[in-house]
């Protein structure tokens, strides 16, 4: 299954890209699984996702927790806690 | 009526208030957030999601309209590069009476800070560049609204 992932703020900077399309390996069921897989994939991922507790996520536009299923989502966004206003 | 905008252009507060208040609402409350030049700050950059930031503002305004009797709300957030003194955010809430307008305005800015996809990055005169960290005080203020 392929998945679009979008990165924001310092997650985007550490990943060195704003978005990518990945072929998900079997066994990646939740947002937390995805973050752990990205952290283990390469040095950039290790730096961006060294502290999973500081990562927030949205699946197809809805903010979710780390245990949220990815299912057949079109886009997962990964980002730090928001700081607007 | 709900009006929401996310944009890189400067926010003209007087023009936005005039547009918002065209209906001659009984009571209008406003919040204007500006870039502070503290600590030698030279630029504030706001990152955002091309679709979800505006959707988040709309969802907030809709929730405010469920909680209070509002005649109009306006939420405008600037994104991209800004300088000290620039307006970052404008919140306007109108009702027939002041109590609901004031409460809704406070709710909207409190929850905007914790619920909407926006990220601040600060650049300083000495060359430092840093993404702003989430503030516990902001979380606590937002949590008061349940």
From TrEMBL, chain A:
Protein origin, superkingdom: Bacteria
Cited SUPFAM superfamilies: MoaD/ThiS
Chain segments annotated as transmembrane: none
InterPro entries on file: Beta-grasp_dom_sf, Mopterin_synth/thiamin_S_b, ThiS/MoaD-like
NCBIfam families from the UniProt entry: moaD
Name of the protein in question: Molybdopterin synthase sulfur carrier subunit
From TrEMBL, chain B:
One Pfam family here: MoaE
Swiss-Prot/TrEMBL GO biological process terms: Mo-molybdopterin cofactor biosynthetic process
Any GO MF annotation of the entry: molybdopterin synthase activity
Pathway(s): Cofactor biosynthesis; molybdopterin biosynthesis
Catalysis: reaction(s): 2 [molybdopterin-synthase sulfur-carrier protein]-C-terminal-Gly-aminoethanethioate + cyclic pyranopterin phosphate + H2O = molybdopterin + 2 [molybdopterin-synthase sulfur-carrier protein]-C-terminal Gly-Gly + 2 H(+)
Keywords, comma-separated and alphabetical: Molybdenum cofactor biosynthesis, Transferase
Enzyme Commission number(s) from the entry: 2.8.1.12
Listed InterPro entries: MoaE_sf, Mopterin_biosynth_MoaE
Enzyme class: transferase
Lineage: superkingdom: Bacteria
Subunit architecture: Heterotetramer of 2 MoaD subunits and 2 MoaE subunits. Also stable as homodimer. The enzyme changes between these two forms during catalysis.
Functional note: Converts molybdopterin precursor Z into molybdopterin. This requires the incorporation of two sulfur atoms into precursor Z to generate a dithiolene group. The sulfur is provided by MoaD.
UniProt record similarity statement: Belongs to the MoaE family.
Protein name according to UniProt: Molybdopterin synthase catalytic subunit
């Amino acid at each position: 299954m392929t998945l679009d992932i979008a990165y924001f703020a310092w997650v985007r900077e550490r990943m060195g890209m704003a978005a990518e399309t990945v072929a998900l390996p079997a066994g990646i069921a939740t947002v937390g699984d995805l973050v752990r897989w990205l952290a283990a994939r390469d040095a950039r991922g290790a730096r961006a996702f060294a502290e999973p507790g500081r990562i927030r996520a949205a699946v197809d536009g809805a903010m979710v927790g780390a245990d949220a299923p990815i299912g057949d989502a079109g886009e997962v966004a990964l980002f730090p806690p928001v700081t607007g206003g | 009526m709900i009006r929401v905008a996310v944009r890189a252009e400067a926010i003209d507060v007087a023009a936005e208030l005039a547009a918002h208040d065209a209906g001659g609402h009984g009571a209008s409350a406003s919040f204007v957030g500006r870039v502070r030049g503290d600590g030698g700050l030279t630029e504030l950059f706001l990152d955002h999601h091309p679709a979800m930031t505006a959707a988040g503002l709309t969802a907030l305004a809709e929730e405010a309209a469920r909680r209070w009797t509002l005649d109009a709300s306006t939420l405008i957030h600037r994104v991209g590069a800004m300088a000290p003194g620039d307006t970052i955010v404008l919140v306007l809430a109108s009702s027939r009476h002041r109590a609901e307008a004031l409460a809704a305005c406070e709710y909207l800015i409190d929850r905007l800070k914790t619920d909407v996809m926006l990220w601040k990055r600060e650049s300083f005169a000495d060359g430092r560049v840093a993404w702003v960290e989430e503030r516990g005080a902001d979380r606590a203020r937002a949590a008061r609204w349940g």
